[in-house]
Amino acid sequence: MGTRDYLANRTPVPTGTLTQLFFESIDRFGDKPAFQTILEGGFHPISYEEVLTRVREVSGGFIALGIEPGDRVAILSENRPEWSQTDYGALCTGVSLVPIHTTLTAHQVAYILRDSGAKIVFASSGDQTEKALEAVRSCPDVLKTVVLGSDGGVQSGVPGGVPDGVLAWEDFLAEGRKTAQDLSESEFREQSLSVRPQDTATILYTSGTTGDPKGVVLTHNNLYSNVKATEIAIPLDETDSTLSFLPLSHILQRMVDYFFFSKGARITYGRSMQTIGEDLLITKPTKVVGAPRVYEKIYQRVMEQTGARGMMVRWAREVGEAWAEEKLAGRQPTWVLRQVYRLAHKLVFKKIHEGVGGRLVFFLSGSAPLAPEINKFFFSAGIRILEGYGLTETSPVTTVNTPTDFQIGTVGPPVAGTEVRIVEDGEILIRGPQVMREYFHRPEDTGAAIDSEGWFCTGDIGDIDERGHLRITDRKKNLLVTAGGKNIAPAPIENRVRGNRFVDQVVMIGDQRSFPALLVVPAFDCLEAWARSKGINAPSRRDLLKEERVQAHLGREVFDSLGDLASYETPKKIGLIEEEFTIEGGILTPNQKVKRRVVRERYGSLIARFYDPANRVRDIFVEED
């Protein structure tokens, strides 16, 4: 149980700008690689000095196109060196970058371009270029579309050639190169460092699961102070390396990349979200930030082993859990347990280390809750996942577990300069230098979010434990209120179920209903292996879910994990869903959070069957069976 309603880390953090951070890094690390991309057979490194040259060209390109300090430019692209070079170029010019998630539609992109008043949109070649061009047609104020590809992303031979308003990246840089010659490097530095801590650095649009998204205005000091606070909490130096694969359009990866850049740690851009496993093996990073979905996938790949190998994995998990319980409680495991654990590490856990590159010191986790059972599994394997908490509006880090202050099931203590307060209804409030300045052109929304004393209302429910760690219960808007008036926080129950090796994804429903229920996407690799071992051969996943023995098995696996819940919060029905929840399918936000409203709408007919009196004695349902 929580024991406090207020917590503060009064360690001071300096005030500054991102351009200050940029030039300090250039001066310290010079010809050392800052970024690299993965090529067939090797890597393409880009040094800090080369980044400075490119940033000067980007800044010159803005000036050549008539972009002035205070203007906004947008970017619609996957992670790549040009993304960061454009970002730093904008910062050095006093221009605010507006990142756009690549999963948004042309209509949504157009809304952000219009609302932000962006003058240029940068887009990666292919689909993103087409989307940008479609969006720009309804945005008269957008001057140019710059395509991040050597051929401008436009097929040669197209009648009429390159469309009006489209500029290839290389041509944009060539224009910038000419303009950059008008300033010496020292003059460019002086100009770049003239931006002030309170100046706008970026405007990020929330994912907009309900209504139009709001533009979150973050200043230079919001992000600078967050980098400095993270620096105090998380050890990092120039011997480290990372894989950057969470979208840079989301503030977590972007701030972390600022942090790594400032410490001389090499940043390798992942090829895609689908190649994370391969990219970890190739790049062998030491410290990596990811979302819980990444760790869930790794866990599932380990637990899907079958036969003798599967038995060994499950034995190692049991040994690891026993060892972890002792270590997390501050006790020394017995001699026998230590010997058995060493064997488990040699046979199983060592291979998990090798599977993530073999050099990993720790993972960082953010953007959504991480199931404690999965975190404990990684800990038992000798891999720490340092879970933290924050929002776009807080730049984002407010609390984080550290290597020396680590507690599974919490998101850690506050970072330097940050205050945490729990109000009467359990909502978490945050105050500190990382809290946004405002919502862009939305004074009423800003006033509703930040009170007169500077406290930001997060919309999350939580408490503070006896060790001074924040624990998140759920989003305030996600709390379920049953027909009997009982409040239920779904996230802890979902996390418990998600720890089962036969479960991939889960969503709890039951607001204003007589009882809660679960929608479950099974971990099909594990489930199919189990079915084969029982002689069950189904032609499709849908047919597999219709098998009575499969339903009974999944029911036991899920319901057995819920035995100690209160009666009113115990799910009574389970709906089995064939399709994975994805960003592309419209159910996950770009930062991997479930759009619960969309789930309720899409699976409304399945949910309705839970509460049909004719199905009173039935526990398991299959989508559209």
Walk me through what this model shows:
With 625 residues, the chain is α/β, with parallel strands linked by helices. It contains 21 helices and 27 strands. The strands form seven sheets. A five-stranded antiparallel sheet has the order 1-17-18-20-21. Strands 5-4-6-7-8 form a five-stranded parallel sheet, sandwiched between helices. Strands 3-2-12-11 form a four-stranded mixed sheet, sandwiched between helices.
List keywords for this structure.
625 residues; 5-stranded parallel β-sheet; 21 helices; 38% helix; globular
Low-confidence stretches: 151-161
Helix fraction bin = 25-40%
According to DSSP, the number of beta strands is: 27
**Cα distance spanning the termini:** 42 Å
Radius of gyration: 25 Å
Structural class: alpha/beta
If you average the pLDDT, what whole number results? 92
Q: What about the largest sheet? A: 5 strands, antiparallel
Spatial ordering of strands, largest sheet: 1-17-18-20-21
Beta percentage is 15-25%
Total count of helical runs of at least 4 residues:
21
| Coarse shape | globular
Summary?
With 625 residues, the protein is α/β, with parallel strands linked by helices. Helix content is 38%, strand content 20%.
Summarize the helices and strands and which ones pair or pack.
Layout: E1 6-9, H1 18-29, E2 33-39, E3 42-47, H2 48-64, E4 72-76, H3 81-93, E5 96-99, H4 106-116, E6 120-124, H5 127-136, E7 144-148, E8 166-168, H6 169-180, H7 185-192, E9 200-205, E10 215-219, H8 220-233, E11 241-244, H9 251-262, E12 266-269, H10 276-283, E13 287-290, H11 292-303, H12 307-328, H13 335-355, E14 362-365, H14 372-380, E15 384-390, E16 397-400, E17 418-422, E18 427-431, E19 438-439, H15 443-449, E20 456-464, E21 470-475, E22 480-481, E23 487-488, H16 490-498, E24 503-509, E25 517-522, H17 524-533, H18 541-546, H19 548-559, E26 573-576, H20 596-602, H21 604-610, E27 620-622
Parallel strand pairs: 2-12, 4-5, 4-6, 6-7, 7-8, 11-12, 13-14, 14-15, 25-26, 26-27
Antiparallel strand pairs: 1-17, 2-3, 9-10, 10-19, 15-16, 17-18, 18-20, 20-21, 22-23, 24-25
Helix pairs in contact: 2-3, 2-6, 4-5, 8-9, 12-13, 12-14
